[in-house]
Amino acid sequence: MTELLNSISVPSHPSSSTKPTSSTPTMTSIPKQTRQWIVSNPPKTNVHLDGDNATWTLQTVDIPELQAGQVLVKAKYLSNDPAQRGWIQDGVDAERLYVPPVRKGDVMRSIGIGEVILSKDENLKEGQIVSYMPDWQEYKVAEAKACMPIQEDEEAGIRATHYIGAMGGPGVTAWWGLMDVAKTTKEDTVVVSGAAGCTGSMVVQLAKHVIGCKRVIGIAGGEKKCKYVESLGADVCVDYKAADFEEQLIKATEGYAEVYFDNVGGPILDLMLKRIKRYGRVAVCGSISTYNDPESTNLKNWFEVIANRIELKGLIVLDAFMQGKGPEITGNLRNAVKEKKIQIEVQEETIVPTKFEDIPKTWMMLFEGGNQGKLVTELQF
């Protein structure tokens, strides 16, 4: 399962511009211990950063000795994803979760980018930049086969961090959700919530510039984010923080929408059930509005699903990889970037320089609306 999770950020071609350095670290520079954040109090509702009920605890442990086929990787960037909240939910039923839950005493799980600083594998050398599962720890002994060399492309503007963002899980999620789950066509009007986030912003661009949908409507919070979404190609972006949000959304979806890509759940999903055309499709990707309060979901408009025969289908990006489509989709995304159909620019990432002891604080920005595009933790040592 770890290898499968790691494959979300795997590029479709061998590494080219990211090359190993010629120098090998001296043994005196190899760390013997690493700090790590462990889950100490799995939350039922809100996450707590401090106090007796703090969700995570910082600890220092010895690094195990490297074995054949393993590498020691130093974390450089951590991916921050709403799904992580579900992984640590107190009392979650492991049989109903799509990945093993992160239990009390476990190191917090995370996808990321790191640098190989010691290798006992012939295919990975010191200095190689890789995508892997660093979890929330400084150094990790990892199986070399689960660490994938990343392919940067200076000419196309593709950086390492894009492989945990637009070129990684969020980008593949957007493609998979639109193309395979919702089966979106150019004749469709598409609405996407969380449109300023990494997945949502990719949905906007794919719908408008790759599929060529007749109308693309974003939903985001605040004037700045809405303008950003419209700059990506949305015909209009509706501000869910506005006092007249419902009236604006009704106006924007006049004639209704064939496809809704849902990243937030809750009241916005409930409202959108009244704005989906008969026989419309909903790709249910996320529910960030309810992650900290799972019992708050209250869909008043559920009968719309029955009356208008609306199809709702949940999606997990791991399905794309389990079906062997991950590399193909990543290749399609690279081509769309090179053809200038997808913008990969600085504003599509919120990269936050973070001290190791502040990792949870940066992660919390996911739930505070503090990021535009992909939220990335850049570790400062």
From TrEMBL:
Gene3D superfamilies: Medium-chain alcohol dehydrogenases, catalytic domain (3.90.180.10), NAD(P)-binding Rossmann-like Domain (3.40.50.720). InterPro entries: ADH-like_C, ADH_N_2, GroES-like_sf, MDR_fam, NAD(P)-bd_dom_sf. Residues 1-35 are annotated as: Disordered. Pfam families: ADH_N_2 (PF16884), ADH_zinc_N (PF00107). Residues 7-31 have a biased composition (Low complexity). Keywords: Oxidoreductase. Residues 200-319 form the Alcohol dehydrogenase-like C-terminal domain. Coiled coil: none annotated. Residues 35-150 form the Oxidoreductase N-terminal domain. GO terms for molecular function: oxidoreductase activity, acting on the CH-CH group of donors, NAD or NADP as acceptor. It comes from the Eukaryota. This is Enoyl reductase (ER) domain-containing protein. It comes from Pseudopithomyces chartarum.
